[in-house]
Amino acid sequence: MIDEERVRGALEGVRHPESGRSIMELGMVKDVSVEGGKVRFTLALPFLDVPVRDQLARDAKEAVEGLEGVEGVEVDVREMTQRERVHFFSVQEGATPEGRANDIRHVVAVMSGKGGVGKSLVSGLLALALREKGFEVGLLDADITGPSIPKMFFRRPKRPEGSHDGILPVESGRGIKIMSINLLLEREDEAVIWRGPLISSAIKQFWRDVLWGRLDYLVVDLPPGTSDASLTVMQAVPLSGVVLVTSPQELAGMVVRKAARMARRMGAPMLGLVENMSYAVCPKCGAKIEIFGPSRAEEISRAFGIPLLGRIPLDPRISELCDSGSIEEYPLERFAPIAEVLVRRASD
Amino acid sequence: MIDEERVRGALEGVRHPESGRSIMELGMVKDVSVEGGKVRFTLALPFLDVPVRDQLARDAKEAVEGLEGVEGVEVDVREMTQRERVHFFSVQEGATPEGRANDIRHVVAVMSGKGGVGKSLVSGLLALALREKGFEVGLLDADITGPSIPKMFFRRPKRPEGSHDGILPVESGRGIKIMSINLLLEREDEAVIWRGPLISSAIKQFWRDVLWGRLDYLVVDLPPGTSDASLTVMQAVPLSGVVLVTSPQELAGMVVRKAARMARRMGAPMLGLVENMSYAVCPKCGAKIEIFGPSRAEEISRAFGIPLLGRIPLDPRISELCDSGSIEEYPLERFAPIAEVLVRRASD
Questions:
Q1: Domains and CATH numbers, chain B
Q2: What is this model's ipTM?
Q3: What is the pLDDT of residue B100?
Q4: d(CA B325, nearest CA chain A) in Å
């Protein structure tokens, strides 16, 4: 007679074509049930949209069909939860999950597609707002060729210390753990002239080889574009969700919609939209000036069915604080409600 | 007796390790002279900073030393002129220079390193200003994942037409020839989720397989960052020079300095610096507001020894024109002097 144990044993022999590891070890097999000669199980994929999907389902099905006493096999396919994904990726990358020093509960990526709309500002303020709420927070600067995070947080950044277990992130004044390529360069304006594979491997190292320790939230500041860096983060890091940043210009909106489509295609949940540079206030007469035109944030958030988390004005004081490494002095009232919603949604 | 002809013959056999083509055919050998048994010639390299430099010089030297009657060989190394580079790259890529329909006199890349500082705006206005002066102008949008050019120039862009010789660029109202990935997509907000090699090959196709025809100037709008797209443009396109764009924020300045270092390392001449978003004017009271803080453009231009070409204010009208595909209606007075200087410098 066929039983669950024998089904599991057969599936143990099915290997993921990319890593060569067993789909059982990778945690891809769920809900095995046997009724008479009928076998049913679920194949959980890190993302639904992976090229190996059909092959894996076929391999798994055939492995079970080969067992004596099996009369029919039904395979359901679903996407992994965030926790399942963490397990999948750490096994796939060869890290031993039990031996890992890092224990990161939620990873939130800040994305835009377009440059210069304030991703780094939103990443920084989000990290700060979460820290203010008493969480352990990390900030990973995934913009390898145009990193902004260290400049915003430090007057004179310390160099990250290394141990034989990995690199230690640098702590900000308020205790946010930060890692950025610019912390590792001799000069802050040194150019990093790297093609995609190097960019990707740097990001993977920042995720895997940095000793983040126990974090409630890791905020990832993505570079503009929908190429290597964003792809690597979405494929290799188990994201709880993505925060999109836009500016009122329709031109920016178009590029942000590209980013949203990418996030959707990669199966990364979208937590919400922040509009930056929404308006400026004239310091002389108090007039509200819509420098980049009227807001289109409502429109974008409706189109993608995601909440508009907030609108941040253009404020010379922000530039000043960012330029002098004092972003931690920025008054957070305007940002606290944004963090509030994010915490709620990321914890869902 | 040794003579120039035999030297040239020996050098014909020396091949460039990357393309396998003869250094004679590539136009790398200049000024061959023979005095008695002493041979002297110049090896012209597309960029001085290429990894094969020493190997090539050694191979060339040894090839001549092997000739009977040669008592000494001296090799001078220098960088190619722009015209020599055009020849080098078209031969290296296997294009037959004589059969090429394209005849492009000057290629100017607009670069920043940082996103959202207005590279596309500067590229567009520069192309326009050159067109106004009566030149034949093309505009190549090298930002594959976040293209802005079509949106700025067209309400409803036409699709590029193809012929068996290649793709025809789309002409703007004022006759600027434009090519961008967004002209080839079904939807303008479709995401282009490509890793570096695909990005690079798209850019090479835009350069090589687009039927630009005879152009006085081709303006190339580079994406942010110092990775694949910028590298490919700097390696595969014979640039007359680079225009750097910055905004007043020191944070932007830092990233722009990275871009400048890259341009310098790649041997691309820097034509000058444009500061965008320098200030806003309150429409109510006329106050000049330095939204991103005081200008640092003078500082950057001094540090790199390049002229400050101009400062463009933040102007809601610009956003409006860019969003509605009407950038060609923007009054060019403020931009004409910038174009003037560029034309002078690019023609040097």
A1: 4-81 (3.30.300.130), 101-347 (3.40.50.300)
A2: 0.80
A3: 58
A4: 10
